[in-house]
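Database export, one record per block. Field names are fixed; values are copied verbatim from the stored entry.
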Amino acid sequence: MSTLTKQTLSHLDWLEAEAIHILREVAGQCANPVLLFSGGKDSICLLRLAEKAFRPGRFPFPLMHIDTGHNYKEVTDFRDKRAAELGERLIVRSVEDSMARGTVVLKHPGESRNKHQSVTLLEAIEEFGFDACIGGARRDEEKARAKERIMSFRDEFGQWDPKNQRPELWNLYNARSHKGENIRAFPISNWTELDVWQYIQREQLELPSIYFAHTRPVVRKNGLLQPVTELTPARDGDVVEDVLVRFRTVGDITCTAPVESDADTVEKILAETATTTITERGATRMDDQTSEASMEQRKKEGYF
């Protein structure tokens, strides 16, 4: 997109136009892409962008979710409802399937399944022969994602090498790959959390209810609020509190924490997001706190 064109568009309009361009590049260059749709806010934005890129025709790719089996029901119910509303094919593959095959083995029953999604994703890519996966990752979420290209090349083992990335000059994107290799495409990579919420407001997008303030029992641990659920029960000595919270990001129950908030509307969330100084993953993801390189290591192994 030329500088002149960019200057004539609003910030959101420009982000939208660039994301639509990327979606169309993937559809044009790749033989068998898929859009990863979890029911979370970023992938909900991707669906609206895909509608604008390809309607009134069908999407040139199916939707797919890699489910840990431990996702919040509010989110998976919304996932199924939204896919049905759009009339698009939804593929769901579960970490539990990989566990049944023996390709995922947990160290103990209580281990988070989140990192094991990489195995199930790579198995699904091989099963369907996908040569590109379109995801909603953003550079502002985490530093490993900040240095990843919009068209991120993965080798025949699904691995990402941060020291061997393709140049992306003047919005020219290379999504070509050999058989067995894969591209991960991130159309909203340059969006911020605030951009996402502004787009949700402008497009009046429906979201799962847990993105908005609600009362939930939690335990305070390591600076985070751990939800008290059947999967994550309170332990001896834990102090359970009923706290008004919302989720900034949604994922596996065992590693996704809410934040204290009374923001029960998009407008209130926008005001809250504009003043926050901690990234959404930094504030909510227990799996990113195991080490400074947690995300980068998972991405090297095939993670989203």
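Remark 1: The longest strand covers residues 214-221.
Remark 2: The mean pLDDT is 88.
End of record.
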